[in-house]
């Protein structure tokens, strides 16, 4: 079977493990985008520590769950988002204005929508979590 999106599979396994009440989840394969997405989730306190296991193949990531995550997902295709359109995407994807984060990939790196607005950069939408 062909894996179409590594990031979508990772978010799906985190969602399922969190709903089951698990304390940790194994994500494979690992990718740079997945690691950056998890870094943003960790900075905002939605997940605990995560460890990248190098198995000389595609790699694995072991994520400690805190139980604070309600939902995380990936937006496919990766739509272009202008700075003026960020608010539209926030109302479309998140349950409330001050609740949750949209992850964007920009020329300045992978960041959430608040940081992108502060740095005045736009890019493509990767996903969301709340």
Protein model, in words:
The mean pLDDT is 93. The strands form 2 sheets. Strands 4, 5, 6, 7 and 8 form a 5-stranded antiparallel sheet that branches. A 3-stranded antiparallel sheet has the order 1-3-2, covered by helices on one side. The chain is of the alpha+beta class. Helix content is 32%, strand content 30%. The termini are far apart.
Instruction: Flag low-confidence runs.
Output: none
> In this structure, how is the largest beta sheet organized?
5 strands, antiparallel
How many beta-strand runs? 8
Count the helices. How many? 4
Helix content: 25-40%
The succession of helices and strands, N to C, reads: HEHEEEEHEEHE
Name the beta content range. 25-35%
Rg, Å, rounded: 14 Å
- Tell the overall outline: globular
User: Structural class given helices, strands, pairing?
Assistant: alpha+beta
Mean pLDDT: 93
Distance between the termini: 30 Å
Question: What is the structure about, briefly put?
Answer:
The protein is an alpha+beta fold and 130 residues long.
Give descriptors for this structure.
32% helix, globular, alpha+beta, 8 strands, 3-stranded antiparallel beta sheet
How are the SSEs placed, and which strands pair?
Blueprint (H helix, E strand, L loop, with lengths): L5 H15 L3 E4 L4 H12 L3 E7 L6 E6 L6 E3 L5 E2 L4 H8 L7 E6 L2 E4 H7 L3 E7 L1
Antiparallel strand pairs: 1-3, 2-3, 4-8, 5-8, 6-7, 6-8
